[in-house]
Amino acid sequence: LSPEEFRELGHAYVDWIADYRARVGELPVLPGVEPGWVRERLPAELPEEGEPLTEVLADMDRVVVPASTHWQHPGFFAYFPANASLASLLGDMLSTGLGSQGMLWSTSPAATELEQHLLDQLAGATGLPAEFTFAGGGGGVIQDSASSSSLVALLAALHRASGGAWRTAGRDGREVLYVSAHTHSSLEKAAIAAGLGADAVRIVAAASGGQAMSADALAAAVREDVAAGRRPVMVCATIGTTGTGAVDPVREIAAVCAEHGVWLHVDAAWAGAAAFCPEHRGLFDGAGLADSYSTDGHKWLLTAFDCNLFWTRDTATLIDALTVLPEYLRNAASESGAVVDYRDWHLPLGRRFRALKLWTVLRRFGLAGIRAHVRRHVELAAELESWAAADARFAAGVPRSLALVCLYVVTGRGTDADNAATKAVLERINAGGRSYVTHTVVGGRYLLRVAVGGLETEERHVRALWDDLCAAADAVTDAVTD
Ligand code: PLP
Fold first, then answer.
1. CA 119 to each of CA 122, 235, 293, 354, 355: distance values in angstroms, whole numbers, following the listed order
2. Residue 48's CB: how many other CB atoms inside 10 A?
3. Which of 27, 44, 366, 467 shows a CA-CA span of 20 to 30 A to 423?
4. Where are the alpha helices (DSSP H) in 404-458?
């Protein structure tokens, strides 16, 4: 494409996106296609000759949209919503437009320094201590996902725990990684990818009556492992677990880690956005004591996938663990020691200019706009919680955490009947097309998770979900009674 052709087509593509976003709320959230539906509609052969790119837009309408789960739909309450604000799309477009690759400072000074600058500012805006900033001796980086951040943290932790031997000798078979039963599954995957094996993951018991990790149980497990000659490497504490939004007692966990020299990684993938609001800061108590901390820009923080924010106070260990320097990457700026080369902060060498989409978000919304965004969802979730609390057909499975509400249907005929009814309600909601919810299981109870957090989700959408929940509960309970 020439720049002029791009300009013309680009307008058509932007129009397509704007039209899609304007009507996404009228589409069924879930596509309802059978496996193979998409492939059956795609040509068997690649085009021998180029085609007009307007054809792609036609195929978006013909094939892609009908077979898409609409994550930006205001009735999307599943998983954790992934906000892809239109402001972030504009930044993403600039990034792709520049087409730069910021593996070294010298391959794109702007990509490196804008990222450093934003991560320093965001640390301040979310209450992380100065030690996590470049100015304070640490630093932050944008990774593709929270899963990658967990893996990178584990690699740095392995390096530190082995006194630097891990990089050359690999694991010694004694390493242990501590999580809770509610820690995200990416930690187990990190242990597998790091060559520790899933058996190196120790699941620490929850404090009684909840889903948060027990710091006492952690201390006992670490003591037991040390006595048995094992090597505690890392603890992952979560602020806002995936299933129920539980918050581990980070300050107490940090004390255990400090006593035994264990790396503490704090995973706040979803809840991290709430740290912009002073009234929610209490949930982050002790996060500043961690060795590393991560939160997803692409969940609640308005930035289109992929954008994970990762900070560590121990950048020296991280870089030492991962650095590999072939001759062709050597350059004067790196050798001056005056620049940051992000190539050593993650597994891939090449990296996108992701800071631009975060920048457009921060400049469009401002900190006040981000706080308002988070507060609106928390308020809507609190409303839903209050409707359910006042209705005998439903009960809360766990206390609401920020904008996440977990409910089950009360049949009065025991847990198995409640579980069956709740599952049936979930299936009805998701077949209905207005809303999409997912589930979790806690202590044998099947719970419907409602994660309020869509960009365009308003009270009327939460109300629509509630009306559908009530109707589905009645239908399911009537069906069982008949
Ligand atoms: N950690 C937590 C607590 C999560 O809830 C999730 C995803 O929902 C992840 C990690 C994984 O996030 P990502 O898709 O960015 O790897």
1. 5, 24, 12, 12, 9
2. 5
3. 27
4. 415-432
Reported as a single tens digit per residue, the pLDDT across 344-365 is 999 999 999 999 999 999 999 9
User: What ranges do the domains of the chain cover?
Assistant: 3-67, 100-352, 368-481
- What's the mean pLDDT in 260-286? 98
Taking the C-alpha atoms of residue 72 and residue 365, their distance in angstroms, rounded to an integer, is: 18
Residue 447: helix, strand or coil by DSSP? strand
Instruction: Look at residue 320 and tell me whether its pLDDT is greater than 80.
Output: yes
For the CA of 79, the nearest atom of ligand 1: 8
Is residue 340 within 8 Å of residue 139, measured between CB atoms?
yes
Q: At what angle do helices 109-125 and 355-389 cross, to 10 degrees?
A: 30
Q: Tell me, what amino acid is at 19?
A: D
Ligand 1 atom showing the smallest separation from residue 298 Cα: 15
**Å from CA of 183 to ligand 1 middle:** 10
DSSP state letters, 359-378:
HHHHHHHHHHHHHHHHHHHH
pLDDT at residue 480 greater than cutoff 70: no
Distance CA 185, CA 243 (A): 11
Measured in degrees and rounded to the nearest 5, phi and psi for residue 204 equal: -85, 140
The predicted-structure confidence for 407-440, as pLDDT tens digits, reads as follows 999 999 999 999 999 999 999 999 999 999 999 9
Residue 478, pLDDT above cutoff 90 = no
ipTM: 0.98
pLDDT band at 208 (very low <50, low <70, confident <90, very high): confident
Q: What is the pLDDT of residue 147?
A: 97
- 3-67: CATH superfamily: dopa decarboxylase, N-terminal domain (1.20.1340.10)
Output the CA 144–ligand 1 centroid distance in Å: 11
Question: Which residues line the pocket of ligand 1, CB cutoff 6 A?
Answer: 80, 145-147, 184, 186, 238, 241-242, 267, 269-270, 296, 308
Q: Which atom of ligand 1 lies nearest, measured to the CA of 148?
A: 16
Query: Closest residue (by CA) to atom 8 of ligand 1?
Result: 242
- The highest-level CATH class for domain 368-481 is alpha beta
Q: Which fold has domain 100-352?
A: Aspartate Aminotransferase; domain 2 (3.40.640)
Q: Quick one: which atom of ligand 1 is closest to the CA of 144?
A: 15
Q: What are phi and psi of 374, to 5 degrees?
A: -65, -45
Query: Could you give the CA distance from residue 469 to residue 475 in angstroms, rounded to a whole number?
Result: 10
